User: Fold Cytochrome C from Thioalkalivibrio paradoxus ARh 1.
Amino acid sequence: MTRTQFPFLASAALAALVAVPLGVFAEPVAYPEGYRHWHHAKSMVIHDGHPLADPFAGIHHIYVNDPALEGLQTGRYADGSVFVFDLLEADAGDEAITEGERKLVGVMVKGAETYRETGGWGFEGFAGDSRDQRLVSDGGQGCFACHQSQADSDYVFTRWRP
Amino acid sequence: MTRTQFPFLASAALAALVAVPLGVFAEPVAYPEGYRHWHHAKSMVIHDGHPLADPFAGIHHIYVNDPALEGLQTGRYADGSVFVFDLLEADAGDEAITEGERKLVGVMVKGAETYRETGGWGFEGFAGDSRDQRLVSDGGQGCFACHQSQADSDYVFTRWRP
Assistant:
């Protein structure tokens, strides 16, 4: 080992020690291409002042792919089940709220083994309309911490509305 | 013609004279079975105080079938294009708005000839979760009166949000 290699390798080893337990090296969550044509499960408006307002203020829609829909209806999620949290600005005025610009696209994908550090779900966020500007830098631990309250439904907040 | 037939036939003729210009005898608009799995186009919240609050206060979602999606993207609507206006109570509290009970399901279906009295679109509403409790009794003239402001987009308010 050369002297110039050592500092790099030592840093990499240290990073691995820190990062692996946080799941940072888990498979990256893919952008959910085509989700605007998936099933729309539900929507919600979050105002400033809500505990989740930073960063989730706005109107959000939850879209699910076919496996996630089956999961919502059976309680069992196959690997590949995907939830999308599509967050738009909520434009208020004239006694109405309409949809504004997209703030972010959140993704939650089932991978029981791949994402075992975070309950079997991978979490990611994509800024605005970007497909590659990623927002999650802690391996999804922050997302999972909130979703842990939903352990009885495999960490899923959404319920299917017929 | 018997004496017992006459009053009935006279009433029917009178009803036809009154009703046909209003399109009451146009083909009934079918309940949009399966629309919860159609494309979700957009959503909006209407508060009390909005001009459309009676009867449209709440949170509504617009769902479109495949032909209507193509129409949104091309500006030309084939017969059979359907828009659904799914209106739910908007439950406000804790700095958020969540979905409540269903108030009504509005339907707008393209039939250039069938519904020529109302711009080539048939209009209907179904109360709550009912598939047969119909709300439109004027052949859609009231709905169409409001939609006439959108003549440039074939009477459609919705724009597709990618």
